[in-house]
Design a protein that fits this description.
The complex is a heterodimer of chains A (232) and B (113). Chain A is an all-alpha fold and 232 residues long. Helix content of chain A is 84%, strand content 0%. Chain A has 13 helices and no strands. Chain B folds into 2 domains: 64 residues; 46 residues, no CATH class. The two termini of chain B are 32 Å apart. Classes of the chains: A mainly alpha (232), B mainly alpha (113).
């Protein structure tokens, strides 16, 4: 049994099975808090903790599934290409929205954590939390954050956006597909995009675009802000 | 299907190559997405050749994030140490970003949907 657990098959089967159940639960219940990604992550963690199986054993298979994220991000070009006319019509508002969002993200994350007495390292780790993981890790490293903490915060932010992002946006009057997609993608990168893409193709296309653009905007703004305010 | 997979992985690989050689601050798959978009607009790649593989991967996009999320379990101690600024900072900032970004895009008039 212990041998089987340390083969990649274990992580693959567990991830697929738990996600399949979580998807089913979400479709049956229609309850937004039961977001399949969030529920699948929580259940898998609980299963591993209770069965005392190490993350390293899980990751042998988990990493195989994670690997498919790479070509999937490339595939986000597809909805964008299909909706290119509508997206190009809004290119200026989209660019302005991204820059405003990136700045708001840096300021509000660092500001709130600082006001609540967060240590300098924690404040720094929070700065790139809305950016897609590989870029966020680079930024965190650059400004002296705790890299694994940043990686965990990126996932938490993504889940939050996927669970209640579209509902929150509609509540505060963000209704147009391009605005909605931009808000979700800028705030909660790929995990938010995965949800909105299922519900609204144009919003999903813009959300996918926002992953790359917000990553770029934040990566450029952070060193500039640091220089400007003389933080180090 | 097979052609689509070759193209998607190929663009990711090209993206990774460019990132290594030029030292770009962006992940290879994001560069791959930009290159694919460029190739579609230059007519180097036809949309039909990636539709099947692309749609399949996008349909299960959410699934591919699960293993990354499970990794959070390694850092519970780190989060617990300063949970208040971490949790409140993350939550407030996420909502602020959505509001600012969405409103900015929406308030800038012009045509659109």
């Amino acid at each position: 049994m212990t041998e089987l657990v340390s083969t990649p098959l274990f992580g693959v089967v567990l991830t697929l099975f738990v996600f399949w159940l979580a998807e089913k639960l979400y479709r049956r219940s229609g309850f937004i808090l039961l977001n399949p990604v969030f529920i699948a992550i929580c259940s898998t963690i609980l299963i591993l903790k209770f069965s005392r199986i190490s993350y390293a054993d899980y990751a042998r298979g988990g990493d195989l599934i994670l690997f498919l994220l790479g070509p999937s991000v490339v595939a986000l070009a597809l909805p964008l290409w299909q909706r290119r006319k509508q997206v190009l019509q809004r290119k200026l508002p989209i660019l302005v929205g991204i820059c405003a969002g990136a700045l708001a993200s840096i300021a509000s994350a660092a500001g709130t954590a600082w006001l609540l007495g967060g240590s300098s390292q924690v404040v720094r780790s929070l700065v790139p939390k809305s950016v897609t993981t590989p870029i966020a890790i680079g930024i965190s490293e650059q400004i002296g954050g705790i890299v694994p903490l940043t990686a965990a915060l990126v996932v938490m932010t993504g889940c939050l956006g996927a669970i209640c992002g579209p509902e929150f946006c509609r509540l505060i009057g963000i209704r147009k597909s391009t605005s909605l997609g931009l808000a979700i993608g800028t705030a909660s990168h790929g995990i938010g995009t995965a949800r909105i893409l299922e519900e609204d193709r144009l919003a999903g296309a813009v959300s996918g675009l926002a992953i790359g653009l917000n990553g770029l905007a934040t990566a450029m703004m952070v060193p500039l802000l640091w220089l400007l305010f003389g933080w180090n | 299907m097979l052609q689509g997979l070759v193209l998607l992985f190929g663009f990711q690989f090209t993206g990774e190559l460019l990132v290594r050689f030029l030292g770009l601050p962006v992940p290879g798959n994001v560069i791959g997405m930009a290159l694919l978009l460029l190739s579609l607009s230059l007519g180097l790649v036809r949309e039909e050749s990636i539709t099947e593989a692309g749609e399949l991967l996008l349909k299960y996009l959410a699934l591919f994030f699960v293993p990354a999320g499970v990794g959070v379990m390694l850092y519970f101690d780190l989060i617990a140490r300063e949970w208040l600024p971490i949790v409140v900072g993350t939550v407030i900032s996420t909502f602020v970003v959505m509001a600012v970004t969405g409103w900015a895009e929406q308030l800038l008039g012009g045509e659109g949907d």
